Amino acid sequence: xxxxxxxxxxxxxxxxxxxxxxxxxxxxxxxxxxxxxxxxxxxxxxxxxxxxxxxxxxxxxxxxxxxxxxxxxxxxxxxxxxxxxxxxxxxxxxxxxxxxxxxxxxxxxxxxxxxxxxxxx
Length: 121
Prior knowledge:
alpha+beta; two-stranded antiparallel ribbon; 1 helix; 6 strands
């Protein structure tokens, strides 16, 4: 079923909240606020995260959409199908994160696991 709406997305406000401490691979939480052509807020998307992932031994930040657990995996619950829009949005989210954190880098969050037995006493 289709439903006609009379709203047009004019702007997206990006609210980034850095995590106080890294939670697993999560370093920040993101909320998106969709604003119409009359400057009215009409959709809020919460649950986006910024995570540190390692690809080919290179740590990098990734932006992840909200997700819900389905069996043993997670499924995205808010998908932006326009890949160009998603890339622009991700870039803006990471820029805001950088502005708020003073430009921290992904490698700043990588810690090596230390085996307590390896500590000389």
